[in-house]
Amino acid sequence: MNTSNKLEVLKDKLKELESVIIAFSGGVDSTFLLKVAHDTLGDKCIAVTIHAMMHSNREIEEAKAYTKALGVKHIVLEIDNFDIKEFIDNDEKRCYYCKKAIFTNIKNIAKESNINYVLDGTNLDDLGDYRPGLKALEELDIKSLLKDSLLTKEDIRILSKELNVPTFNKPAFACLATRIPYGETITNDKLRMIEKSEEYLQDLGFKQFRVRTHNDLARIEVEENEIHKFFDKELLKNTHNKLKEIGFKYVSLDLLGYRMGSMNEGIKH
């Protein structure tokens, strides 16, 4: 099935559901899904964004700006104290507990708004990584129409460009908790340190990056084709000093570069 056909399948599936809430992060997948859902269902489509400690403030602001430009109703649910013990303890099922809590909240909003279904942005490629959160979505009957329409990440980027969706070339992003190794307690302070460090790299012009933490050590991952930028004494020194100022004791550069899900290496699916 070609990309255009997959888009038609997605539209047909949306029409069958009649009214939807999109769990909207502002990333490539959920932005594309929101655009198609809004075009297909009009005001029977609402965007809901959760703003909790594991989310980047910059990402939230981008999500607000896009929904405003699109003219879609947007609810931002602020969760000031995300104190799910299993999430904070950060075992290998962390993502399951997080998704369960977040999507339970979104389902409640759907019920209050008389909306039939909640949709998330899982695509076909997401099935290849370790993603315990998918089990929570299944348990809560969250619909993953991108996956069900056989849309891959590449399909979504191609169609986003055709539909003038501004995130068509946006780098992949994930919640800030994914930067912390399993077993290391998640704290708001740690997440803010990661957020500030990644904003610094973004402001330097890096496209795809992560700042992973190992207690008081920061491990910077940038794409392989951008590692050479660090072969510059001034940039090395400035980056070291900035991340130390943010709160890290040690700063390192990962020699293999950015890998999606590198914290999951070694986990048996």
TrEMBL record:
SUPFAM superfamilies: Adenine nucleotide alpha hydrolases-like. Keywords: Transferase. Pfam families: ATP_bind_3 (PF01171). Residues 20-127 form the tRNA(Ile)-lysidine/2-thiocytidine synthase N-terminal domain. One of its GO terms (molecular function) is transferase activity. InterPro entries: LarE, Ni-pincer_cofactor_biosynth, Rossmann-like_a/b/a_fold, TilS/TtcA_N. This is ATP-dependent sacrificial sulfur transferase LarE. The lineage of its organism: Bacteria, Bacillati, Bacillota, Clostridia, Peptostreptococcales.
